[in-house]
Amino acid sequence: MVTEERAVELVEALLLRQRQESPWMAQEPERAVANVYEHAFGWLVAVQSVEYIRSRDPGEMLIGQGPYLVDRQDGSIHHIPVTTFVSDRWEELYRQQVKGVRPPDEPDPLLTAVQALVHSDGMMAAMRHLRKQAPLLEPHQAKAYVTAVKDGREPPAELVGLIPKPKQETSPLLSISTLAGGPAR
User: Fold this and answer.
1) Domain span at 23
2) Which of 34, 53, 120, 178 has the fewest CB atoms within 10 Å of its CB?
3) Least confident interval from 3-7, 23-27, 34-38, 75-79
4) What are the CA-CA distances from residue 117 to residues 40, 57, 162 (Å)?
5) How confident is the model at residue 184 (pLDDT cuts 50, 70, 90)?
């Protein structure tokens, strides 16, 4: 278990290493730990320019930098971009991108619609709807799909593969970067 003090040490060491190893970082204002917040995953460590921490002059403030997360379990350090951090999804992204936890599968909206139609309006209505959404299906394939749904079975995989997938929303959120102590992403 990583303590708050150890989290601060790890981030300070990272900041020093970045400043020493990167010509770009050497030209930027020196950064230091400004605040630490406990979180279920570990420690959120906010950094700020040393000059701002000393003077509290807003002109010296670094803006647009998200916090570092020091994982409580293994001490790995992850940078969370500010645009990702201020969203409601940063924790979900951390679970997925860093911890490898897959989100639960969302129900297939077409399958759900076909199920509802077959039970309310019958096989023909369900087949018509299915063929509108999946024009590559031949009538006998649509019938096999709807029959499987009517019988409470999963539609055959080869037919599901012929149905175009809805476009996924692209997330404007930036990835969480592992900077130390874990597999680089």
Assistant:
1) 4-103+172-180
2) 120
3) 23-27
4) 44, 64, 20
5) very low
**Number of domains observed in the structure of the chain:** 2
Cα Rg for the chain, rounded, in angstroms?
A: 25
- Give residue-wise pLDDT tens across range 93-138: 898 888 888 777 777 889 999 999 999 999 999 999 999 999 989 9
The amino acid at 99: K
Question: Does pLDDT of 185 surpass 50?
Answer: no
Nearest 5°: phi and psi at 86?
-80, -5
Instruction: Kindly report the number of other CB atoms within 10 A of residue 182's CB atom.
Output: 15
Say how far apart CA 145 and CA 142 lie, in whole Å: 5
Q: Within a domain: residue 121? A: yes
Does residue 167 belong to any structural domain of this protein?
A: no
CA 121, 124, 129, 130 dihedral sign is positive
Amino acid symbol at 38: E
**Residue 71 bridge partners (DSSP):** 42
Rounded to an integer, the average pLDDT of 134-160 is 93
Sign of the CA dihedral 22, 25, 31, 35? negative
